[in-house]
């Protein structure tokens, strides 16, 4: 059977970054990545695909080209975690043993939780930026939109990139405004929660964008079903008294963001907590029950914003603490919960929301982060993709300092 010193599950943002950093520190370390997919996606670019700013091609690379030199790629999916025997089982029947495991297989986007969605997604005006192909369809719908009703949905938290459900709404509103079609359009933001954003500090600039475009916000609305041919969406609406009612809305276009959970293979494993996420210490990223297991990225139980930005800061912590654990030393690094969400309030303008555990505002730049800025648009469209592909995934060492500032 197969056995490696370090096995990484998932070759996404977290898996590749961790592998590259481990190899940079110790080129001889025996590392394997278990990853079934041929294509690796830069998911933060999908919002821009939906808005017609990036092509889908710009967000995808061959997985093969990203596996760091000297790392063994096991091209299969993990079908079970067996941490009591220090092995993972693969979908092709094999098992892979390890001394240390880094589990970062991402999360499950639960498309099936919305009745009728599967049959109609990508057709009948039903789109989603949470998949590359249907993000392309988002852009087609926006380009061809001549007025009517557009709905944007957001499920319960946590989801990856909490801002993404509304980013595309502002970008569409701005495109319609420029084409003189905004007054002929009704845009509605239907969200399960009762606030525009989880960190109150960043709500005012979003409220300003909502008001400026004339977007109607429907709080406590959870999408339950979509009928594509009939162009109807059904929502469960939670009343303040706890009672739930159902509301049907007509649409010409709907951008859907389904609920998100831990992957089934994680939920079924001893690694998961009750909520279905891999249960790690929020600071050290080491598993609370299995000291030879680390986790980071979307799969982990940490309460940070599930973003690639978070992964960029988590990876050096997980790697340093794993190396220390391998050599029997105390773990030297702690993650502060940093994550970031570039909120595209207009074409060319971004509010860069950066925050850590407890909603602490932790900007990287010394100016008021609530102000929409063109410089942050360049950061999102030029600098961050470069940082991701050419630096982070290569195990790079640029350390951009973010800190708590007094606002
Ligand atoms: P992923 O990158 O999703 O990688 C998980 C990997 O695990 C995948 O390659 C998958 O194939 C593999 N895998 C799955 N199941 C198994 C299995 N059983 N066995 C082995 N491997 C498996 N982040 C930002 O920082 N800024 C943004 O603006 C932003 N916008 C976003 C917009 C959208 C529409 C989306 C969808 C995401 C956005 N994100 C953003 C979030 C960011 O992309 C994720 O947080 C990040 O990719 C998480 O990295 P990860 O490695 O944990 O998961």
Structural features, described:
With 407 residues, this protein is an alpha/beta fold. It has 2 domains: 180 residues, FAD/NAD(P)-binding domain (3-Layer(bba) Sandwich); 150 residues, FAD/NAD(P)-binding domain. 25% of the residues lie in helices and 27% in strands. The protein contains 9 helices and 22 strands. Helix 1 packs across helix 8. The N and C termini lie far apart (56 Å). The mean pLDDT is 97. Bound molecules: flavin-adenine dinucleotide. The site of flavin-adenine dinucleotide has 38 residues, from helix 1, helix 2, helix 8 and strand 20. This is FAD-dependent oxidoreductase. It holds the Pfam family Pyr_redox_2. InterPro entries: FAD/NAD-bd_sf, FAD/NAD-binding_dom, Sulphide_quinone_reductase.
Map the helices and strands.
Layout: E1 2-9, H1 13-25, E2 31-34, E3 39-41, H2 46-50, E4 60-62, E5 72-74, E6 78-82, E7 87-90, E8 95-103, E9 107-109, H3 117-120, E10 126-127, H4 132-144, E11 148-154, H5 164-178, E12 185-191, H6 203-213, E13 216-218, E14 221-227, E15 232-238, E16 244-250, E17 253-255, E18 260-262, H7 264-267, E19 293-295, H8 308-326, E20 339-346, E21 349-356, E22 360-361, H9 374-391
Helix pairs in contact: 1-8
Bound molecules: flavin-adenine dinucleotide.
Keywords:
407 residues; 22 strands; FAD/NAD-binding_dom; 25% helix; FAD/NAD-bd_sf; globular; alpha/beta; FAD/NAD(P)-binding domain; 2 domains; FAD-dependent oxidoreductase; 5-stranded parallel sheet; Sulphide_quinone_reductase; binds flavin-adenine dinucleotide
Q: Which consecutive residue ranges, at least 5 long each, have pLDDT under 50?
A: none
Which small-molecule species are bound to the chains here?
flavin-adenine dinucleotide
CATH superfamily assignment of the largest domain?
FAD/NAD(P)-binding domain
Average pLDDT: 97
Major beta sheet summary: 7 strands, mixed
Number of helices: 9
- The proportion of strand residues reads 25-35%
* Terminal residue distance: 56 Å
Query: If you consult CATH, what is the topology of the largest domain?
Result: FAD/NAD(P)-binding domain
Radius of gyration: 21 Å
Structural domain tally? 2
